[in-house]
Amino acid sequence: xKKQLLNYNFLLNKKIIFWIILFLVxxxxxxxxxFGFFPGNDDLAYKNIGNEFLFWDYLNSRYMNWSARLFPxxxxxxxxxxxxxxxxxxxxxxxxxxxxxxxxFFKYQVLIYDMTVIISLxxxxxxxxxxxxFFWATGSINYLWPISMGLFVLIPYSDYxxxxxxxxxxxxxxxxxxxxxxxxxxxxxxxxxxxxxxxxIMIYFHLFIYNKYKQFSIYLILIxxxxxxxxxxxxxxxxxxxxxxSEIIKWYPGFDKIPLSSRIxxxxxxxxxxxxxxxxxxxxxxxILTFNLMKDSFLKKLFLIxxxxxxxxxxxxxxxxxxxxxxxxxxxxxxxxNILSGRFLFTIFPxxxxxxxxxxxxxxxYLVSKKNKFILTLYLAGxxxxxxxxxxxxxxxxxxxxxxxxxxxxxxIGFYLFQEIINKYSTNRNYYLILLGxxxxxxxxxxxx
Length: 449
What we know:
Radius of gyration: 23 Å
Low-confidence stretches: none
Distance between the termini: 49 Å
Shape: globular
Order of helices and strands: HHHHHHHHHHHHHHHHHH
Strand content: under 5%
Number of strands: 0
Number of domains: 1
């Protein structure tokens, strides 16, 4: 009995030490990517607002004249008047919450090993996303904090569906349930993109919980209703029209006059130039994980050809892989236009290659996954948040922070696939983690220096 108690205490202490070290590492990253107050900077604008408006007047003005992202606006109203380390502490906590919540989708107990896997997967993304969505003050409050809260709110959904752990509304966990409702209220008025992403996953869980257990959870329905009311509150805010016109003038003159066909073309080019370029490495690692789970078949061989083609062109630094803008030089209305011409085929090659590769990745991931419908939902919800950007004049001005949801969905999928590989090759658990993390070390080094 004493020996068991000593072992438990050792493991507990080990876990606490790991979380402390991880907190310090994330905190140092927040210090490494410090922000500044300079003319034209959003952080400076929010800092000055407190001197110009009273709090409630400011929120009312934002809702009527700009947007309904009231939770981020409320936070930024106050936080820049405190010591900057306050934001860094909160931001570090949300980073930890994000990693923890992604694991809790698929596991009830979060281990040190799991956190290491999640962090390794995150580093396969472009660091531009981390800089703007995670480590920039205004960006993190608008993206990292809401997505972390959203994944945390989804934990009881996954516990119910995957592990049949129902919500207990009793005195022992009443504080946790009330806290989750408060977090949901804040989340529901934070970010339209993230809200839609979270609501899609909520609806998925409701449908499949009912299909599996033939019942609904009143508590989970309440949380979902709060989210739906929140997104309607944001979408119908009077300030949206004002903001839309202002952003057209500033970022994309004539955007509202672009026909649908041209907008689709612009959206496809943006998806390739921004989404694929910044998430290419995580697409590749997901394809490698998926490939390792596939049974021998023609589809597996075909998928391998796509993987090797993309990886080879990346290693050779062949410019054809990312020459997406050249399609603008093609006039489809030209009477001499020939769909079989070498010039046209050369122009569409990167589009065909990448979209075929992503189509194969999604299809094969679906086929090898036991939780295939959930994995497909994560893919589609993430892609939808990118498609949403094609309706915004800040398509390019928003930068890479708008890829936050898609990144989270891909990392979550990667974690699940990695767990499946560990289950399949349990004797090589640490070996596979080393392989996964080796390139993350280079990203980590590059980020620091």
